[in-house]
Amino acid sequence: MSVGRRGFTLVELIIALVLMTLVGTVIFQLLNGTQRVSTAQSERMMLQSSIRTGALVVPAELREISTSGGGQTDLVHIDTDSVTYRAARGLGFTCAVTATEIKVLNTSVLPFSALRAIAPGRDSLLLFVDGDPDTRTDDAWVRLPVSSVATSTCGSEAAIAVTLPSFINSLPDSQLSSVRVGGPVRTEEVMRLKSYTADGQEWVGAASISGGDAVQPILGPIAPGGFALSYFTGDGTATTVLANVRVIGITVIGLTERAVAQGGNTGANAILQDTLVTRVLLRNAPR
Fold first, then answer.
1. 3-state secondary structure string, the chain?
2. By C-alpha distance, which of 229, 278, 228, 280 is closest to 253?
């Protein structure tokens, strides 16, 4: 005699479905919580990376700005959310000088040290003029436009030939003899750091003004007004006079790109922020 099989009752099926739903809900909450925490950690890391970039790139760039007690400064324009300046790009030493050409040594022992090659039109050349080597009162840097650049030699030594418009009348005494062969030359381009808006977010960007480049982001996103600059004299007094600026104060308020969890699995999502505040002493700033 066969015994019939007994199936599941409706109550058992309902209990099983309820248990499966509970287990599925718990698993979903765990996975969702893990994803929220992972996303929050990733966004925080990106925010901290952006702030570190601000701590390294912006002060390093501005620290190369030169100023002097004689009123010479690399600053071109200053504002609370932007600064335009002449950025150093290369340093070398002359080996031959005429009224329209300057040759710069580029040997293995004494190379032309530069961020990149000299770019005519984009770069200008700073020529050191020292009329009397026994006094500092006539020392000056003369800024000259670059017409062309070519590989050359000074005797048997490798050099870079920089062609310029005749600059005799640009010299303080209009005497070519006041330019000492073997003296330093620098190259520079006009740059601007500024805050700008793109895709609905605010960023800190850089652009070569002399090169005619479009602004490129270097850090961000930042809070509205999250890139603030302030300018001070040597004794800490705020100033708007270019020649008097000795210290630049920098404030950057970075943001996460999207809202993230604040309190683990249960906290509400929000945009997070971090702040960098620092000051930069300009190069050659008189004490």
1. CCCCCCCCCHHHHHHHHHHHHHHHHHHHHHHHHHHHHHHHHHHHHHHHHHHHHHHHHHHHHHHCCEECCCCCECEEEECCCEEEEEEEEEEEEEEEECCCEEEEECCCCCCCEECCCCCECCEEEEEEEECCCCCCCCEEEEEEECCEEEEEEECCEEEEEEECCCCHHHCCCCCHHHCCCCCEEEEEEEEEEEEEEECCEEEEEEEECCCCCCCEEEEEEEEEEEEEEEEECCCCCECCCHHHCCEEEEEEEEECCCCEECCCCCCCEECCEEEEEEEEECECCCC
2. 228
Distance, CA of 68 to CA of 284 (rounded, Å): 6
Condensed to tens digits (0 to 9), the pLDDT of residues 172-218 reads: 788 888 888 898 999 999 999 999 998 888 989 999 999 999 998 88
pLDDT, tens digit, 9 for 90 and up, residues 63-120: 888 887 667 789 999 999 999 999 989 999 999 999 999 999 999 999 999 989 999 9
pTM of the model: 0.76
pLDDT digits (tens, 9 = 90+) for 23-46: 877 776 677 666 666 666 666 666
